[in-house]
Design goal:
Blueprint lengths: L2 H57 L6 H8 L8 E6 L8 E6 L3
Length: 104
Amino acid sequence: MTKKTRAAWTAGVLAVIVAVIVIAAVPFSGRARADEREDSIRSITETVQKMALQCYVIEGAYPEGLEYLQENYGLTVNTEEYLIIYTPYAENLPPEVKVIYRGS
C-alpha cells in the first residue's frame, strides 16, 4: 500500500467514524432539549406556586392572577416560550398552575 492509498484509506475511515458519531448524537440532542424544557416547566410551576404561597403568608390570601404576582412580587414570565395558566379557587386555597411550552 502506498502512502497516498494509506492516507486516503485513513481519511475515509475517519469520515465514516465522524458520520456515525454525528448520526448517533442527533437523537440524544433532541432528548436533551426535551429534558431541558421539562425542567424549565417544572421550575416555572414551582416558582409561581412558591410566590403565590408567599403572597398568602404575607397578605392572608392567594393572588387572583399572575398579574398581581408580576406587579407586586417581581414575577417575570417569558410569554413567548411559555403559557402559564393560573386558576385561582378561593382566597384560602392554592391556585392550580399549569405551564405549557409554546414551541418556537
